[in-house]
């Protein structure tokens, strides 16, 4: 049965807050994974740009003794070349973790705010955010 207007508004705010938290959790997980996986690229490109005489030309000892303009250019090119495979690896790691933790199942539909008696679960009981005891035989499209 439909909820009252105030109850519907309250449930809409609860569901919107929960969906926002799940979105922020996904975003944080993605940021951490991409930062860790792309760290070699970030370091190589940073040192390449830092020691190149046309860009920053640092006065650090390693820039004067080890890296000249040619080696700095090589570091910059190497960093951008290894970025593509590392992006694929980072996305594969994120997708496998999101699938294993079932984070994308945690988004709740707004129809729970409109009607009473809805369950906090869809598709299986294994999700971290779903309530136990859901009837997995019910299909939304039937």
UniProtKB/TrEMBL annotation:
Its main location: membrane. The keyword Transmembrane helix applies. One of its GO terms (molecular function) is PDZ domain binding. The chain crosses the membrane at residues 21-49, 74-94. The keyword Transmembrane helix applies. It is a multi-pass membrane protein. GO terms for cellular component: plasma membrane. InterPro entries: TMEM88. Keywords: Membrane, Transmembrane, Transmembrane helix. It is found in: Membrane. Belongs to the TMEM88 family. This is TMM88 protein.
């Amino acid at each position: 049965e439909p909820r009252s207007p105030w109850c519907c508004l309250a449930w809409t705010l609860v569901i919107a807050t929960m969906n926002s938290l799940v979105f922020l959790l996904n975003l944080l997980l993605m940021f951490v994974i991409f930062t860790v996986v792309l760290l070699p690229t970030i370091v190589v490109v940073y040192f390449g740009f830092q020691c190149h005489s046309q860009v920053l030309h640092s006065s650090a000892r390693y820039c004067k003794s080890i890296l000249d303009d040619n080696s700095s250019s090589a570091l910059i090119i190497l960093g951008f070349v290894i970025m593509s495979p590392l992006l694929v690896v980072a996305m594969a790691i994120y997708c496998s973790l999101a699938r294993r933790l079932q984070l994308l199942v945690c988004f709740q539909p707004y129809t729970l705010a409109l009607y009473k008696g809805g369950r906090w679960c869809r598709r299986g009981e294994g999700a971290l955010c779903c309530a136990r005891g859901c009837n997995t035989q019910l299909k939304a499209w039937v």
